[in-house]
Amino acid sequence: MKILSVPKPAPAGARRTRRAQAFTVAEMMVAVFIFVFMVLGIIYTWMFGMRFDQVVCSKLGASDKSRMSFDLLTGDIRSAKSWGVGNIVTNNKTSFTRCVNATNQVGNALSLTNSMNINSWIRYWFNTNTCQLCRGTNDGVATRYQIIAQNLTNSGTLGNGLTNTSMTFQGQKYDGTLAQDWQFKYMLVTTMEFCQYQYPLTKVGPGYYYNYYRIQLKAASHCPN
After folding, report:
1. Is the dihedral of CA 100, 102, 107, 109 positive or negative?
2. DSSP state of 179
3. Dihedral angle at the C-alpha atoms of 46, 51, 57, 60, nearest 10 degrees?
4. Nearest to residue 194, comparing CAs of 208, 211, 209?
5. What ranges do the domains of the chain cover?
6. For residue 152, how many other CB atoms are within 10 A of its CB?
7. For 141-183, what is each residue's pLDDT tens digit?
């Protein structure tokens, strides 16, 4: 016959001692390290999300601003009855000088007239000193104008032998060559290269996210005359 041994119950004091035992120092250190790494990971993820959100919001804001600028310029070009490419100096919209006939129609300014009155005009020009695209009308004040786009640059290159149209207006023929004749309608081309985003302000130059970004406009008048 096999006799089973019954374990004796532990004394009451020993049970209370076992229940009162806590983590050891090593266990506490491991738990603290794990908690700290979790907190650091959460903070890093939050910072990455905020940074990515800033870039996305900046790109969306810059795209909206550029689209509004081009929509206004495109509408003025399409409704113009006559136009001319030339140059404006000292940010004075009345100092417009049109490119002469039989020369390349390239300049920093564009003059548009949407009526038979040649004294009623809208002019766009690039201010290279402040890196802005400006718009002015014949309102009697030579120095009054509206800023259409800013933070522009002409540091980019188009490559493949193409002409850099940044911060200039060009008259181009259907094949992309420069127009030289006033007698024929041609396509008006300009390029905006931005050196930083806006809303919120985010620089995109060297050492940041992008070198620059470019938006090019090609438009022609829809008026038959």
Report:
1. positive
2. P
3. -130
4. 211
5. 34-219
6. 21
7. 878 888 888 777 765 454 444 455 678 899 988 888 888 887 7
Strands 122-127 and 132-137: antiparallel
Extract the tokens encoding 128: 């290279």
Within 8 A by CB and 6+ apart from 11, the residues are: none
pLDDT score of 51:
73
121, 112 Cβ separation under 8 angstroms: yes
Q: Say how far apart CA 188 and CA 128 lie, in whole Å.
A: 20
Contact 125, 73 (CB under 8 A): no
Residue 132 CB neighbours (<10 A): 18
Please name the helix (run of DSSP H) or strand (run of DSSP E) that holds residue 137, with its range, or none: strand 132-137
Half-sphere exposure of 124 (CA within 13 A, CB side): 26
What is the spatial distance between Cα 57 and Cα 160, in angstroms, rounded to a whole number? 33
Consecutive H or E run containing 76: helix 25-79
